[in-house]
Design a protein that fits this description.
Blueprint: H1 14-17, E1 24-28, H2 33-44, E2 48-53, H3 56-68, E3 72-77, H4 85-97, E4 102-105, H5 120-148, E5 151-156, H6 170-190, E6 195-202, H7 208-216, H8 219-225, H9 240-247, E7 258-261
Parallel strand pairs: 1-2, 1-4, 2-3, 4-5, 5-6, 6-7
The protein binds nicotinamide-adenine-dinucleotide.
């Protein structure tokens, strides 16, 4: 038991644990879905958010929502797959903001092809977009964070970082598997220099692409839900708590983690039963 005179600090007020005031956050994919939700949450907690996407109109909408809520954000059209642009982007960030504390690599898109038809060019496109382009942003942000003495990076992976999806996702899964290893390797390289690198692995989170697939084949939603004990698909805002945690000093001892955000999908064996949802469920 602690002596009454212990100098153990009191638990800080909840808001201070996750306060991002003064931090500069770079987020890719801010025009839509999880990148947009992440940008809104980071700004709401005090960060200045540099929002990247190749969709200029979508970026503008996110920027307006953040401004209306009293947050600080700037939008910059940037294609993550154009690797040589990463250096120019961060030179501009150096001049305009002088530091970078957080990078969230969220931009990305699926690619679906029957493996018998999958071409080398399609595999290269998936790798350029999801791995090489993201690596370029990690390298640019990481070098600055090392000079500053600290920072945090989050890469969006997928269930496909660890397991197979089927349904023509071979190239996407190859890339997402690489995202997991990129995260582990960079966290191991940079942890001693104060830079944390983690990944968030979402299950199916509703976005325009998923909505189209459900509209074309409603049975696909039942297939997904059968693997999600929580009983619903993800929503973009489900990423907000994790992103703020990983951007904040509250997660200062968390690095190299691949964190599922999946309603319980990865925990459940493929032949498992969702508790309470099966006729044979025990009480
Ligand atoms: N939605 C899911 O079910 C799910 C599940 C696991 C992983 N993910 C991954 O999470 C990330 C975000 O997914 P989402 O559901 O928010 O998608 P979304 O389609 O709602 O948004 C993706 C955003 O990324 C942008 N983008 C795509 N490629 C880009 C590039 N090369 N350069 C700049 N911007 C680019 C798009 O313009 C779009 O604004 C993606 O990497 C996706 O692969 C999604």
């Amino acid at each position: 038991m602690m002596p009454a005179t212990s100098r153990t600090p009191a638990v800080p007020a909840a808001v201070s644990l996750f306060d991002l005031t003064g931090k500069v956050a770079v987020v890719s994919g801010s025009a839509s879905g999880m990148g947009k939700a992440a940008s809104l949450a980071l700004a709401a907690h005090g960060a200045t958010v540099i929002m990247l996407d190749r969709n200029a109109a979508g970026l503008e909408v996110t920027a307006q929502e953040i401004a209306a809520a009293g947050g600080r954000a700037v939008a910059r059209v940037h294609d993550v797959a154009e690797v040589e642009e990463a250096g120019r982007l961060f030179t501009w960030i150096d001049g305009a903001f002088g530091r970078v504390d957080f990078l969230a690599n969220i931009a990305g898109e699926g690619i679906m092809t029957d493996p018998l038809d999958l071409t080398a060019a399609q595999i290269r496109t998936a790798l350029e977009n999801l791995v090489v382009g993201r690596y370029a942003l990690c390298r640019e942000a990481g070098s600055r964070m090392i000079r500053q003495g600290g920072g945090s990076i989050v890469n969006t992976g997928s269930l496909a970082s660890l397991t197979a999806l089927g349904r023509g996702h071979v190239a996407y899964s190859m890339a997402m598997g690489a995202v997991a290893q990129m995260t582990r390797e960079l966290s191991t390289e940079w942890a001693s220099r104060g830079v944390r690198v983690n990944a968030i692995l979402p299950a199916q989170v509703m976005n325009p692409g998923l909505a189209e697939r459900i509209a074309a084949d409603p049975s696909i939603e039942r297939t997904w839900l059968a693997g999600i004990p929580r009983g619903r698909l993800g929503r973009p805002e489900d990423i907000q708590g994790l992103i703020v945690l990983l951007a904040s000093d509250a997660s200062s001892w968390i690095t190299g983690a691949l964190i599922p955000m999946d309603g319980g999908n990865l925990a459940m064996n493929a032949g498992g039963s969702i508790g309470g949802a099966h006729a044979g469920a025990t009480r």
